[in-house]
Amino acid sequence: MAHFDLPLEKLREYRPDLPVPDDLEAFWQGTIAQARSRGGEVRSEKVDNRLRLIDTYDVTYPGFDGQPVKAWLHVPAGATGPLPTVAQYIGYSGGRGFPFGNTLYAQAGFAQLIMDSRGQSYSGGGWEVTPDHWEGPGVNQAPGQMTRGILDPQTYYYRRAYTDAVRLLDAAAELPQCDASRMVVLGGSQGGGLAIAAAGLGALAGHSLLGSAPDVPFLCHFPRAITLVNSQPYGEIVRYLAGFRDQVEPVLRTLSYFDGAILGRYATAPTIFSVGLMDQTCPPSTCFAAYNWYGDGKVEDKTVEVYPFNEHEGGADHHRQKVLDWLHQHLA
Question: Under the phi-then-psi rule, with left for phi > 0, alpha for psi from -120 to 50, and beta for the rest, what region is 160?
Fold first, then answer.
């Protein structure tokens, strides 16, 4: 796949003027406050992960509207005291998976919290998963999560998912293995979009993160994404609007409440992004829009790693090596 988006010199300065809802802060502060008001217990139980060098805990915590959300907590074997913590979010269709499958950051010496994506996990399965806990108003949707409840910000799927992401940060403060004062959020693709949301909305909710590391992030600059590519998962929205031709305006309005190029402006933590210039799943201009708006001038410690000849895999292990170095620097 050749380069198809803006040239790199244009991408580095691409900062589109996106419509920001007047009630955006009130919407999210109210949503998070409502979730917190529901209470709920953070539960943690050690499980047999079949590994000798990593201990794993099955975590259940209250997410959106107090609904139970699953997570894994991995720590180096025998660790009991508070460790610098990595909160990790997973790509579209995936979930927390099996307890032995994703332990890189625990191997590096951190507490690694992995959120289960509600209503997903179908690409890899795993242990007990998180249902969406939602009964919609009967409106239609395209297959997948991208258009579930999309005609109203109150009912949209990512209102629940983003709230789960912020509540994971709340849950870390109640887990003795985690040091919530030394915490970074990260993830790839959808996980990168959730990391941006957690960084921005987490700051609104009172969290002082030490960093964020969105890798080839999804859920950014929706208006451009759905007109530049029709690959999945953005293609779910394209497919929906191809049928419901009269719903473009309410759909774009809803998406403006969940756009990483908007929510990331609230972030205050240092960041390292990545982008693949041949990525037709999360096009380069959408990732750069989120990166260039991230922190809205408040964050000086920010960098973006560019992989000119890669698609959605981005830098893969090359980038993970850079992220590990960056984590050790910011969570020392």
Answer: alpha
Query: What's the pTM value of the predicted model, to 2 decimals?
Result: 0.97
Q: Which amino acid is at 121?
A: S
**Is 187 contained in some domain?**
yes
Gap between the Cα atoms of 204 and 198, Å rounded: 10
179, 215, 279, 285: which one is catalytic? Answer: 279
* Catalytic residue (choose from 74, 221, 312, 330): 312
Q: Which domain holds residue 95?
A: 8-330
The confidence score (pLDDT) of residue 123 equals 79
**192-219 exposure pattern, b = at least 16 Cβ within 10 A, e = fewer:** bbbbbbbbbbbbbbebebbbbbbbbbbb
Q: What does the pLDDT read at residue 139?
A: 62
Active site residue 312: yes
The one-letter amino acid code at 283 reads P
Residue 27, CA distances (Å) to 35, 149, 258, 280 in order: 12, 16, 11, 31
CATH code at 288?
Answer: 3.40.50.1820
CA–CA separation, 68 and 40 (whole Å): 8
| 202 lies in some domain | yes
Residues of the chain with pLDDT under 50: none
For residues 160 and 221, give the distance between their C-alpha atoms in angstroms, rounded to a whole number.
Answer: 20
> How many Cβ atoms are within 10 Å of 247's Cβ, its own excluded?
17
What backbone phi and psi angles, to 5 degrees, belong to 48?
-85, 105
Q: Rounded to the nearest 5 degrees, what angle is found at the Cα of 146, between the Cα atoms of 1 and 59?
A: 105
Residue closest to 327 by CA, chosen among 186, 136, 133, 161: 186
For position 145, what pLDDT does the model report? 93
Q: Residue 305 corresponds to which tokens in the numbers above?
A: 């790693």
- Residue listed under structure tokens 């890669």: 310
Among residues 121, 189, 212, 285, the one annotated as catalytic is: 189
User: Could you give the 3-state DSSP secondary structure of residue 42?
Assistant: coil
What pLDDT sits at residue 137? 60
pLDDT of residue 113: 98
What total of structural domains would you count in the chain?
1
Of 88, 12, 71, 93, the C-alpha closest to 305 is 12
183: left (phi over 0), alpha (psi -120 to 50) or beta: beta
Known active-site residue 164: no
